[in-house]
Amino acid sequence: MSAPLKNDLFLRALLREPTPRTPVWMMRQAGRYLPEYRATRAQAGNFLKLCMTPDLACEVTLQPLRRYALDAAILFSDILTIPHALGLGLEFEAGEGPRIDRPVRSARDIDALPSLDPERELRYVMDAVRVIRRELDGKVPLIGFAGSPWTVGTYVVEGGSSKNFQHIKGMLYGAPSDLHRLLAHLTRATTDYLNAQIAAGAQAVMIFDTWGGALSPAAYREFSLHYMTEIVANLHRAADGRRVPVILFTKGGGAWLADMADSGADALGVDWTTDLGTARLAVADRVALQGNLDPSVLYAPPAAIRAEVGRVLASFGQGHGHVFNLGHGIHPDVPPEHAAAMVDAVHELSPPYHR
Ligand code: CP3
């Protein structure tokens, strides 16, 4: 039996249940802006080894919780563990981002993809989840995650990060049935992967659709939202007698929030280009919202950070169902004290919105 949760504000807010204040965590909260993260990564040798060593992945997961009064921990891993497990050859070159040695570009490449057993090929991730749950000892809930099939697909087809998505968009418009087969394959792998994380102890899961916003509205529905909806429909939504909430985050997806609310997710991530009040009207209180401070606000001094936190809280307004977060990952060159200013401001300024 796992320890009872001492702080369940995050899970309750995701289900739009009453909380005395707004819970808060940060996307990429374990990362390079923390000197202790850089030290542990050096100890591991490189980023991938850090992900693949459960005790060290646990250590960096817990580091931000030692500094800040956060209401959730997020598994330390990456969305590219799936292409790695599919044998496509993943490398992270320092300062260059990810590279995939054998990109998937043809119908034949797609047919050759192996199926995935997450408890075998991605066992190190489940081991990390189990170690983190044990070490958290019920302090806050643990978030598991995966990339959306479309977003992981962009790396798999392009072979790395991309500006114009030349190859995958060529496939989308020129050979759409091939792309659909690839996305269906990634959807099966991602569903099994997230269900394995839930079985191992993840108490909420988030799907990162970082590049969904690069699609036209019609292509977004057909090539990204459709597959995320299929994943949501097939997730195990309860564990330990509690609901396991699902968060969908499409960066740049502000115009599609109403469609996303039909996916069956409990909550939607919102980036800083959409006002939370507008987002709330769009989803008509069907789902909770997570976001959406511009991560670059953390370059400003603490007084300015506090003012912007106040603005985000006011934009959501009175009532429950808001999880405070950045609108995207924290930048690697932000001073750690500035993250503290943000978290403290959420603790101090949010209670009046819950009375
Ligand atoms: O949020 C957390 O603290 C958990 C860890 C986490 C990482 N990656 C660790 C990481 C999460 C949730 C991710 C998700 C991820 N990975 C996304 C989607 C979220 C987003 O930010 O939009 C994407 C697109 C990736 C793919 C990826 N991983 C890229 C493009 C890069 C290189 C770019 C960069 O930021 O350096 C990574 C590397 C990566 N993943 C790092 C971390 C901490 C930096 C690696 C390092 O330590 O050098």
How many helices in DSSP terms?
16
Strand content: 5-15%
By CATH reckoning, the class would read: Alpha Beta
CATH second-level architecture: Alpha-Beta Barrel
Tally of distinct domains: 1
Cofactors, ions and other ligands in the entry:
coproporphyrinogen III
Largest sheet: 7 strands, parallel
Order of neighbouring strands in the sheet with most strands: 1-4-5-8-9-10-11
Overall mean pLDDT score?
Answer: 97
How many DSSP-defined strands? 11
What is the alpha-carbon Rg in Å? 19 Å
Structural class: alpha/beta
Approximate shape: globular
Briefly note the CATH topology name. Answer: TIM Barrel
Query: How far do the termini sit from each other?
Result: 35 Å
Name the helix and strand elements from N-terminus to C-terminus, one letter apiece.
HHHHEHEEHHHEHHHEHEEEHEHEHEH
Low-confidence stretches: none
The amount of helix comes to 40-55%
Topology:
Elements: H1 9-14, H2 35-44, H3 47-52, H4 54-67, E1 73-74, H5 81-85, E2 90-93, E3 97-100, H6 107-111, H7 118-121, H8 123-136, E4 142-147, H9 149-158, H10 166-174, H11 176-200, E5 204-209, H12 217-233, E6 238-239, E7 242-243, E8 246-250, H13 257-261, E9 267-269, H14 276-283, E10 288-293, H15 302-316, E11 322-326, H16 336-349
Parallel strand pairs: 1-4, 4-5, 5-8, 8-9, 9-10, 10-11
Antiparallel strand pairs: 2-3, 6-7
Coproporphyrinogen III binds next to strand 3 and strand 4.
Give your account of this protein's structure.
With 355 residues, the chain is an alpha/beta fold. It has one domain (9-354): TIM Barrel, CATH 3.20.20. It is built from 16 helices and eleven strands. The chain has helices at 9-14, 35-44, 47-52, 54-67, 81-85, 107-111, 118-121, 123-136, 149-158, 166-174, 176-200, 217-233, 257-261, 276-283, 302-316, 336-349; strands spanning 73-74, 90-93, 97-100, 142-147, 204-209, 238-239, 242-243, 246-250, 267-269, 288-293, 322-326. Strand 6 and strand 7 form a beta hairpin. Helix 2 runs antiparallel to helix 4 (54-67) and helix 15 (302-316) packs across helix 16 (336-349). The longest helix has 25 residues, at 176-200. The chain is globular, with a radius of gyration of 19 Å.
